[in-house]
Amino acid sequence: MEVCGEDGQLKLLGQPYSPFVVRVSIALAVKGIHYEFIEEDIHNKSELLLKSNPVHKKIPVLIHNGKPVCESMNIVQYIEEAWGNKAPNILPKDPYDRAIARFWAAFVDDKFIPSIWGVFKDEGEEQQKAVEETVANFLLLEETLSGKAYFGGDEIGLVDIALGGLLVTIQTVEKITNSVLIDKQKMPLLSAWADKFCKADRVKEVLPDPATLLKLMWERKAKMTSPPAGN
User: Fold this and answer.
1) pLDDT tens track for 203-214
2) 103 by DSSP, 3-state: which?
3) Which range among 2-16, 117-131, 138-152, 160-174 shows the weakest confidence by mean pLDDT?
């Protein structure tokens, strides 16, 4: 069903267990923006997706009044700019604070995504190296949370969405690899933040089901470690 209300015609192309799609879903949810979700088959991409994102051909894509916007954090910032009159403010009003938020959001993409992927796919020494790198990055984020409920202050902001969209995936990687990435003893603030974020009213409604994601990621891990089939 098309959603054509005060928010205009809005569609989100994605897959409910993609952490990048989850980021966009969180941003729309906390703003209270209504949209149509179109689930994509990543193995058989729709013509709409290929037309909307011809460069990368990836999800998520937000289509607002017929105009596509691609890449998760780019979409999140677009949502803030297009619906800046709706609370909460995903980005601070102060230019310096906005720059700092963008810096840490980029830090999540540049540092966490490669290292967490390494924890998931690697084995032995390489996996341990990825775990240590991930923990070191989390410790840096722990310092930035001092005295705040969220990275955005009293309300969920850009950095919360950047990292929060990955949370269920991170927790699933911990289970599959028997790793501790967010250590409650070493990172009490980050651990409390993760719990608070996942329980936030509008956020919890759009987070992926942990049990289903665990099953899907176990299947993916099995395919990665299986020997190639013979001819």
Assistant:
1) 999 999 999 999
2) helix
3) 2-16
CA distance 81 to 115: 31
pLDDT at 90 over 80: yes
List 13's β-bridge partners, or say none: 38, 61
Give the tens place of pLDDT for each residue, 110-126.
999 999 999 999 999 99
Closest CA to 19 of 124, 116, 94: 116
Spatial neighbors of 110 by CB under 8 A, at least 6 apart, are: none
CB 161 within 8 A of CB 76: yes
Query: Rounded to 10 degrees, what is the CA torsion of 148, 151, 155, 159?
Result: 180
Residue whose entry in the numeric block shows the structure tokens 């995936």 = 169
Please give the model's pTM, rounded to 2 decimal places.
Answer: 0.93
Cβ-Cβ contacts under 8 Å for 99 (sequence gap 6 or more): none
Amino acid at 149: A
Q: Is 39 helix (H, G, I), strand (E, B) or coil?
A: strand
- Identify the burial level of 56 via C-beta atoms within 10 angstroms of its C-beta, where 0-12 means exposed, 13-18 middle and 19 or more buried: exposed
Over its C-alpha atoms, the chain yields an Rg (Å, rounded) of 18
The tokens 């005295």 sit on which residue? 147
Task: Please name the amino acid found at residue 33.
Answer: I
41: three-class secondary structure by DSSP: coil
Joined tokens for residue 190: 């980050």
Beta carbons within 10 angstroms of residue 215's beta carbon: 13
Report how far residue 185's alpha carbon sits from residue 161's, in angstroms, rounded to the nearest whole number. Answer: 24
